[in-house]
Specification:
Elements: E1 3-6, E2 9-16, E3 19-27, H1 30-48, H2 60-74, H3 79-93, H4 96-99, H5 108-119, H6 124-143, H7 168-177, H8 182-192, H9 196-201, E4 207-208, E5 219-222, E6 232-235, H10 238-258, H11 281-292, E7 295-296, E8 299-300, H12 311-323, H13 328-335, H14 340-343, H15 351-364, H16 378-391
Antiparallel strand pairs: 1-2, 2-3, 4-5, 5-6, 7-8
Helix pairs in contact: 2-3, 3-6, 8-10, 8-12
């Protein structure tokens, strides 16, 4: 018998792999004590076989703290990315069924409840960004072995696509109303297709105004971005180069004045604020709103109809590339897209363009007509053979 009574409670003791195992069951019922002893033997056997009991999943609020620390570490040079995830996590934590639950209890039903609750007050795009944050968070928990299964998260349909494209006439009107540095940023985006953040983080060391190594244009270098494909080199058009030359001349003139003040240093950024730091995207958005929709009698009146945001400048440039016949793979390289699927949005072949493609195919095809070998008549061939035999 491997249990014995000591006082009012039962103890168990047995040998396991040569070790003496003894402990109190803290129970006065012998039947319960034997069940506890059996459970201890099973646990020891599992551990000896390398089997470990799954640990309890963390609460959602605890995983949120760990996830935010992960984002801050992995994206320490991207404060806007950190701020984005922090804002989305705050919204997710406001939903009590998430905040108070262990992550293994969050299933498709719980997520659908969140979608229904949020959709009552916000647009599908907002809900989708929050769901994308939740999905990334739970996938990381799975990688960290905090979760056995990631629930399926379906994004909402009906998300509004901002596909506004400036016409050439609208571009002139808009640029004339833009204050600096918005005007120069807008010109750069319209000529290069840069993202807003890429333009604002650009430093003078990333700009080469004069052609080198036999190239036809100067260029700008994008060192980092949303993905590895964002790192790229973009040629400068004449208008973009002229704008940058003017800004550089102004920056050099300012540097000459700043040398007298040892406490201030010249800003490395092409678009710098008064403190010499990179201009903020939010500040640029305010300038864009005031330029595109100035106030008239206390109300904002847009210059022209359309969902025109700063990102529309990039979309306009890429659309113009597609309309000029540039293929999707080249657009992908210029835009820094991570997938060719995104770049294909800007390719809209017309019937005329399709016909021109077949014309080029036909012109490039060099058809070589193989002439059959000429055969002499049989009588002529026989005469030739007889003459050849006589000569021998």
């Amino acid at each position: 018998m491997s249990i014995f009574k000591r006082g009012n409670v039962y103890w168990y003791h047995f040998l396991f792999n040569g070790d003496h195992i003894q402990a109190s069951t803290k129970q006065g019922n012998p039947r319960t004590a034997r069940q506890i002893e059996a459970a201890r033997r099973t646990a020891l056997a599992k551990g000896d076989a390398g089997i470990r009991e799954p640990k309890a999943s963390p609460e959602f609020r605890d995983l949120a703290k760990r996830f935010l620390a992960h984002v801050e570490t992995r994206h320490e040079n991207k404060p806007q990315t950190v701020a984005f995830y922090a804002a989305k996590l705050s919204r997710l934590l406001d939903y009590l069924p998430f905040a108070s639950a262990r992550i293994d209890r969050i299933d498709e039903g719980t997520i659908e409840g969140y979608v229904v609750a949020r959709r009552a007050s916000v647009e599908p795009a907002t809900v989708n960004r929050e769901l994308a944050t939740l999905r990334r968070m739970l996938r990381l928990a799975y990688e960290w072995r905090e979760l056995q299964r990631v629930p399926r998260i379906r994004l909402l349909t009906g998300e509004r696509m901002r596909d506004f494209v400036l016409s050439r006439e609208q571009e002139k009107t808009y640029l004339a109303a833009c204050p600096q540095p918005l005007r120069d940023v807008a010109i750069l985006m319209l000529e290069s297709g840069l993202r807003i953040g890429e333009a604002l983080r650009m430093e003078w060391t990333d700009v080469t105004l004069d052609p080198i190594h036999g190239s036809r244009f100067g260029f700008i270098r994008v060192r980092e971005g949303k993905s590895k494909n964002a790192r790229r080199i973009i040629p400068l058009t004449d208008r973009a180069a002229a704008m940058l030359r003017h800004r550089k001349a102004e920056a050099e003139a300012e540097v000459a004045m700043l040398r007298r003040d040892e406490k201030r240093k010249p800003a490395p950024f092409v678009f710098a604020n008064r403190e010499g730091e990179a201009y903020l995207g939010t500040s640029l958005n305010h300038l864009h709103r005031d330029a595109f929709a100035p106030k008239v009698d206390g109300e904002r009146v847009p210059m022209f109809a359309g969902d025109f945001v700063l990102h529309s400048l990039r979309h306009t440039m890429l659309t113009r590339l597609g309309e000029s016949g540039v293929d999707a793979f080249t657009i992908m390289r210029i835009a820094g897209h991570s997938s060719i699927v995104v770049s294909q949005r800007y390719i809209h072949p017309t019937p005329e363009a399709v016909e021109r493609a077949f014309e080029r195919l036909q012109l490039s095809a060099k058809v070589t007509v193989i002439q059959p070998k000429r055969q002499l008549p049989a009588t002529v061939s026989a005469t030739v053979k007889r003459r050849a035999a006589v000569s021998h």
